[in-house]
Amino acid sequence: MAMWLRLKITLLLLLSTNVLESYGFTQRSWSESADLANKTVALLTLDEKIGMVTGVGQFNSRCVGNIKPPNRSLSITTSSNTVLNVSIPPLCFQDGPAGLRLVKNVTGFPTGINAASTFSRRLMRARGEALGEEFRGKGVNVFLGPAMDIMRNPKAGRGWESFGPDPYLNGEGAYETIIGVQSAGVMACAKHYLANNQEHWRYGLSANVDERTLREMYWWPFMRSIDANVSSVMCAYNRLNGTSSCHNEDLIGLLSEGGFQGFVVSDWGATHDSATDNALAGLDMEQPGDFILIGGGVYGNGLKNAVNDGSVPVEVLNGMVAKILTPWFVLGQDQGFPAINFDAQHADGSGNLNLNVNVRTDAHTELTREIGRASAVLLKNNRTTTDGTPTGTTIRGLPVSQERIKSIAIIGRDAKLPNLDCNPPLTAGLNQCNDGTMSIGWGSGSNSLDFIVPPNTAIRDFVGNSATITESLSNDRPAGPNAAIGKDLAIVFANAMSGELGFYFVVDGNQGDRNDLDLWFKGGSLIEAVAAVNNNTVVVIHSVGPVPMPWSNHPNITAIIYAGAPGEQTGPSLVDVIWGAYNPRGRLPFTIADSEDDYGTTIVYNSITGFPTIDYTERLLLDYRYMDSKNIAPRFEFGFGLSYTKFEYSSLSISSSGSSQVVSFTIKNTGGLDGTEIPQLYLGFPGSAGEPEKVLRGFDEVDLKAGESKQVSLTISEREMSVWDTPSHSWVRPQGTFEVFVGASVKDIRLTGSF
Ligand code: NOJ
Prior knowledge:
By secondary structure, the chain is of the alpha/beta class. The protein is 25% helix and 18% strand. The chain folds into 3 domains: 2-344, Glycoside hydrolase, family 3, N-terminal domain (TIM Barrel); 376-597, Rossmann fold, CATH 3.40.50.1700; 645-754, Sandwich (Immunoglobulin-like), CATH 2.60.40.
């Protein structure tokens, strides 16, 4: 282990306190909190209320967003007749969904898309809890996440921040993250509401979505966020059906119909037109308050004038403030919540006011590593016998035998420590200048890479003197293939990146969205050149989403790992999988097809008429649902991933329980190694329902020792068996026979039944 890493871990162990144990706050009910919020509002002046709902300006602010709270303590009488003294802080809003943005001494967690790859509610929840701990530790009141934008097209720049193209998987990811984050007393913010699915033209494009598609695809994860009692929702930059999201009364109205009791905050600068339009439509807070892209800066005096001239009734303003304060009281943020102790406006992360506040614990490092290895998807492996057990007769493939592999080549720029410096430095820090391994995309959703352990370092640390290592840490040819010649093993790394559009984020010609699906820096050619000279080539892909793999059947490519964007413990988590200390179990949260046409959607890059209108004519058919409908055989399908062992499914039974259906079956580990299987449940609706052939409605993670069997039960709720009925504007369970498909991927169905 490198000296600096050892030092860091020792330091963290010494400083580490269990933050969870020291929270010491009591959560309140929503009704009690609403009462406290209303009583607080009653004590505020008009200016104080305006200060509560208006950002103070992104670059006047310590966090990416703050408000101006009343500068005094307020005494309110609770329902049990005690006096509560309340001091409202400047409320700190901070990105992003995979860890603190532009802050030192924090963890670079795995991305949302890798959390999805685990198909593990346990790990999704644990990631949320750890994020919550770190945001709390830095005094962040509102965690700007989770992102739950459906990956409508695989090139969408911010797809990696969310949980992929499937609404159900997005919903589960959102639900678990929110429960986790809020358990630390930090408010979560579900974003981006709604249909924020590409970066080009995002500040004004109109996503035109019919009612059923909207509910079943794009609303679904927000509905699950409300199930998790999310504190806030961020309205998006784009327009929905012609009206800008933040003053779209119908759209915002859905939230309260769905039971949402928190506040709606604008994306940064996403407010258009007048304060009155936005306030009457239900926008509770504008951020950052003065940030004008093509909108922004409409509250403040604009809202004060609107209240004074009666166009916004004061009751509306009171309601806005109360909705902000309600979740603040629910999560006990009035009880000893840490003060802000960093300054995010320094691009190099400096300016942290108190670096001794230790919020990053060794447990978070370990969790990041665990999610990293649990999300690594083994797509191909030669080194197996028919029962799945690694065979002793060949050393080609995975896991690598430390006894028998004596020379290793590590090839590709994606294997090395990234140099993150940008020129000019104004733009540094959001990972858009990455010239090494890709562990997260760029933009506001990026995180701190201070502690990143790249693949080459981790491999060297692990291998030690047991093999010789040759490195070629660029994508140059012939250097890469030359390094591979004559080696027992060549590990070749390649990546594809994307990120957020911003006025300064054009990376290698890509404005957020990827220009194409291909690997960057000629990574595909590098892989082929290495495979041409080494018959034990293992490919590792770090990518923000699917990349075509025309080389996957090359006989010299003995294994492929799709590692996604796994966060700072990228190297160690790969070592765990490659050398077999950990049996891979990650699954693809999207399909890897051969061409973009196989996905049935596009990114609109060019529009001569200005902000385009994008019709979501594919309706419910994204990713595997589209490919099923067109009989497209994918290269690696949704839900796919190999293990070093094999699993057998049997004994399906289906029974009703109230309005739900319970699907039970048995899984046996028939191979020679302990492992984890990810059974998936897909539902086939009655023909009359007009649903895709199969839709994901359940999954689990099942740990099984070699030879062990377990019974698994997955429950399908009434809502999960329903479709959105546009004429009646409601969820309706269709009449007829439902088919149940249980299997190891959407194409690898092992058991079928019906009810
Ligand atoms: C704009 C991004 O769309 C949003 O996700 C982020 O939270 C805000 N900027 C604040 O940085």
